Amino acid sequence: MTTHIYSGPLSMFGAKVEIAAREKGVPFELVMVPFIEGDHYEPKHPEVLRVNPVKQQVPVLVDDEVSLFDSTQIFEYLEDRYPSPALWPDGIAERARARQLEQKSDEVFFPNVIKLFGLQEAMQSAPAIAACAGCARFYEEMEGLLATREYLAGPYSFADIAFYMACVFADRKGAGMTDATPRLLAWRTRVGDRPAVRAVVDPMMRFLASQGRGVPAFLQR
């Protein structure tokens, strides 16, 4: 049975899953669900509705007898099913820290970016300034981690994939990195130059450009 990944042209979480699958060399068929103005996906794809009936969101992975939604759960499945190359560190403690970093990217950093989605016309407002400050604090924390390593959890991992994609969306919404975090900027270049990452992010940027939306300066090829 062919592995299917259901995503969308501007799905950050779908991009995470696709990058992970490409890093592992998993053969898969990518299904882009219909996209309409306002960043909504209509009509809902029947497989997305079947696998994720409550949230009705991508990403969804269908592989043999396994059907999953949620990018983190899909990460874990891919690691179990395709253990090489590994995308979690070897040691138990190291894996725990990497998993925590991936979770913080989604649940601590990215909520600040989500707030900015509705504040693009009010970027000088107190809520927008607070959201940008939250992103900046997180950047500083990650800058500290990179003082002794090239990637967030030591070896390249799911934590890097998750945070890289969150950073792409933060930059799009006005909360990008600055020269205050030079190690993090270098990390962003290292991750962004990986073939699996470019294979996913470049089409996303082309889609943005085709819609007349801004493309982050660091991703303008």
UniProtKB/TrEMBL annotation:
<keyword id="KW-0808">Transferase</keyword>
<dbReference type="InterPro" id="IPR004045">
    <property type="entry name" value="Glutathione_S-Trfase_N"/>
</dbReference>
<dbReference type="InterPro" id="IPR036249">
    <property type="entry name" value="Thioredoxin-like_sf"/>
</dbReference>
<feature type="domain" description="GST C-terminal">
    <location>
        <begin position="91"/>
        <end position="218"/>
    </location>
</feature>
<dbReference type="GO" id="GO:0016740">
    <property type="term" value="F:transferase activity"/>
</dbReference>
<dbReference type="Pfam" id="PF13417">
    <property type="entry name" value="GST_N_3"/>
</dbReference>
<dbReference type="InterPro" id="IPR010987">
    <property type="entry name" value="Glutathione-S-Trfase_C-like"/>
</dbReference>
<feature type="domain" description="GST N-terminal">
    <location>
        <begin position="1"/>
        <end position="86"/>
    </location>
</feature>
<dbReference type="InterPro" id="IPR040079">
    <property type="entry name" value="Glutathione_S-Trfase"/>
</dbReference>
<protein>
    <submittedName>
        <fullName>Glutathione S-transferase family protein</fullName>
    </submittedName>
</protein>
<dbReference type="InterPro" id="IPR036282">
    <property type="entry name" value="Glutathione-S-Trfase_C_sf"/>
</dbReference>
